[in-house]
């Protein structure tokens, strides 16, 4: 890390007054500032609050491509990091930036760490969050996968399909919900059964606003339309909350052509030979029948 000249001179005096500051930016864009100093500090348009009880253990950093990591410890607070937000997954993958700051001269600071939040543990009114460095991303396998099904996510840059096209999304109020996983409507027409299977349900308002789930099944029963998610949403959804449901895609060649008319962007290889073709070998006499050879 490169130290600010003023901070470097201050540290060389042997009598220091420094503090650590953290900025946490959630994936929904909401940012929080924390410091282990005993009063609030402000710079870069962010106020780093002192009353959050946040602190950090030793930061492990190294050269090369090995992973930097540390942990942050703090108290759960409704005004900062609440147990409900952690349970809902709102801090999963949040971006973290950390500085070492001369609290008497705020301009004298140096950047310590940038990464994301990994595993979060909570107990006894406190939380412990694993902070993963930027090199963590290098542990993920990358590259093109050659397979028959499409590898794109419906609506992403590779797919190129506009989910706001008429007939491919529905926005409506929740009428009934069971276990935060099964949603029911007495009247929900205009889409054939199964249209939303493998699609995405996103909550637009209420306590679970911003959360999403993947649709497991979409069908009609004697009480109306039923949409079931693979896993319960991690916050409470109540009747009257607005949700959006996007059409589902099963990644097949035929679905891309007939349901979405998006064949030009299909990211799979439908003509890829199967294992039986790869194991075939030429024979000198006649047709290979699978029988014993004499």
Structure in words:
Helices cover 8% and strands 33% of the residues. By secondary structure, the protein is mainly β. The protein folds into two domains: 5-139, Pnp Oxidase, Chain A; 169-246, Beta Barrel (Thrombin, subunit H), CATH 2.40.10. The longest helix is centred in the N-terminal third of the chain and has 8 residues, at 5-12. It is flat, with a radius of gyration of 27 Å. Residues 63-67 have low confidence and may be disordered.
Count of discrete structural domains: 2
Give the helix/strand class: mainly beta
Determine the N-to-C terminus distance.
Answer: 73 Å
Unreliable spans are: 63-67
Question: How much strand?
Answer: 25-35%
The level of helicity is under 10%
Mean pLDDT: 84
Shape assignment? flat
- Please state the second-level CATH architecture of the largest domain: Roll
Count of individual beta strands:
16
Task: Characterize the largest beta sheet: strand count, sense, and whether it forms a barrel.
Answer: 7 strands, antiparallel
Number of helices: 4
Q: Radius of gyration from the CA trace?
A: 27 Å
**What is the CATH domain class of the largest domain?**
Mainly Beta
Fill in the CATH topology of the largest domain: Pnp Oxidase, Chain A
For the largest beta sheet, what order do the strands appear in spatially?
2-1-7-8-9-6-5
Order of helices and strands: HEEEEEEHEEEEEEEEEEHH
InterPro entries: Phage_phiJL001_Gp84, Phage_phiJL001_Gp84_C
Pfam family, one: Phage_phiJL001_Gp84_N
Organism: Salinihabitans flavidus
Domain Bacteriophage phiJL001 Gp84 C-terminal: 194-276
